[in-house]
Amino acid sequence: MPEPSLLPPVADAAAWSAMELPESTYRDAVGVVAARHGLRVADAAKAVRGSSPVFLTAAHAFKLIPPPWLFELPRELLALERVHGRLPVRTPAVIASGHLDGWGYLVTERLDGVGLRELLPSLDSAGRASIGRQVGEALAALHEVPCADLELLTVDWQAFAAERAEACIAFQRTHGLAPAAVAALPEMLARGAPWVPDARRALLHADLHHEHALVEAHGDGWRLTGIIDFGDAVVGHPEYDMLTPAFFVAGADPACLGALFAGAGFSCDSTASHRLMAWSAMHRFNALARFLPADHGADALEDLRSRYWPVTRSASTSAAP
Question: Could you tell me if 87 and 80 are in contact, meaning their C-beta atoms sit under 8 angstroms apart?
Answer without folding.
Answer: no
